[in-house]
Amino acid sequence: MESKRLALVITALVAGAVLLSACGAPAAQSNVAAPTRSITVVGQGKASGTPDVAHISIGVETSGASAQEAVSANRAQMTTLLQKIKAAGIAAKDIQTSNFSIYADQQGKVEGMPSSGAGADVITYRVTNQVNLTVRDITKLGDVLDQAVSAGANSVYGVSFEVDDPSKLEATAREKAVVDAKARAETLAKLNGVSVGEVLTVSEVVGGVGPLYERASAVGLGGGTPIQPGEFEVNLSVQVTYAIQ
């Protein structure tokens, strides 16, 4: 009997606690914050400087009735070319082979030869050896070109100029991009009747790998012709999100 009374008392207490919880407990409050109003813009900046390094591709192309003949001629001519280049002040670390190829050039039938006879096809073997040069004193570029041509270089192309250490130009372009972003944000805010607040997020916009570099191209290359390095330009973009006040 005593155990039954104890069970009834416990049941009554539990029921009362549930009733009090349902009737007297305050409603739970929402912790979800209102979304922050913001303006996101992309600012752009650029900076330019005078190039101090030149890059150029120079090579020798030879031909012969056999592959061995073409390779032998190319080896001799290329050896002389490299000697001249080094004598002009180009360090070995700034000379890098970029292409070496051998191919057969079939010219077709010789006039008067039978269409299916031996020796009817004229085949010439061509060998190309190309090196990329880095000229760290661009005032010597004209001399380097003259020396290369006199040594037998018959393939010269891909001349470009750049700044060896572009970090200062990058810093200037980045600073201009941030200023441009603030101006764009203020213009958008004014058009919409609000004002710009604090910076919420900022990131550098990268299209590819790193900033965009505009390398100057050489104009008027050749023996005795002055070299025109032009300007080297760095372009940077930053994306900035501002709070709206």
Summary keywords:
245 residues, alpha+beta, Translation Initiation Factor IF3, Alpha-Beta Plaits, 4-stranded antiparallel beta sheet, 4 helices, 9 strands
Quick synopsis:
It is built from four helices and nine strands. It is elongated, with a radius of gyration of 38 Å.
Q: What's the story with the biggest beta sheet?
A: 5 strands, antiparallel
User: What CATH architecture of the largest domain do you see?
Assistant: 2-Layer Sandwich
Strand order of the largest sheet: 3-4-2-5-8
Number of domains: 2
| CATH topology (level 3) name of the largest domain | Alpha-Beta Plaits
Kindly state the mean pLDDT as a whole number? 81
The rounded Rg comes to 38 Å
Distance between the termini: 73 Å
According to DSSP, the number of beta strands is 9
Instruction: Tell me roughly what share of residues is in helical segments.
Output: 25-40%
Class computed from helices, strands and strand pairing: alpha+beta
Spell out the helices and strands N to C.
HEEHEEHEHEEEE
Any idea of the CATH class of the largest domain?
Answer: Alpha Beta
The oligomeric state is single chain
Strand content: 35-45%
